[in-house]
Predict the structure.
Amino acid sequence: MPDSTGIEPGSEFVSSVATRILRRAGKYADEVNDFVEGVGVELTLLDSFNAQVESVVYTFEPPTARRRGDSLVFASIYRAAKDFPTLEADRHVPAELIAALLAAEVEFRGPLRLSRTQTTLLAEVYERLGASFVGLGLPGHAVLSYRRASFLHRANEDTDAEDRCGLRLARARTSALPPGWRRWGPQLSDLLCGYGYQPFRLLGFIAVQLVVFTAILLLFAAQPVTETVYLSVTSYLNPAGVGDTVSSGPGGRTMLAVESWAGAVTMSVFFALLVRKWFRM
């Protein structure tokens, strides 16, 4: 039976704080639903959310710092916030989801230190919340969730989990940008290398470049196909000399020069990202 004066899940103190969290989450959920209906800006919403969190944290004064290290204080609130990948039928964002994020922020910012196990558990809560907010069309809230999850995984020195959250964080940030040209650069980065977290994707882009440059060279070259293919592949990594491009014609020599520059830039980016990934393992 939980101690009514302690800070274990189910204690009197935790229940009172959870009640305040649920009450404030209900009020904030109304603001979120106004945003979903087209009123307001999500950045302004997050300012309001931060005020709600600080209000609870300010009054969060545990009677003791001692507690079990294998569970979270607001575990019941997190359990109630199941996955909500889409809006409800009435287009309302579930208040349980808001309450879970608010509780996680209180636990993250509060005075209680997290054990390694609690850090992992809280990071997993943030990850689930981030995925739910992405599905609900609230990328700004997803950014907050994934940023926290990434920080917690870094504290536990779990680089794989940190990179996973980093990739999802980058995608959520892109989704939070206004539709249009401002998304093009980040979306291209995601397509080519997963924002740097998936460098081996660049190998596919390299293969496409080789096919395109080889096809264009075949239009200009007066030499056998096999020699043209060989020249194209080697020129991508090592610029061809003047004597090697005699039979390629002016247009072919121009394409070989462009291919060499493209190869130098692409391979430099690939190895830079690969080394970064290796040194983080």
DSSP finds eleven helices and no strands in the chain.
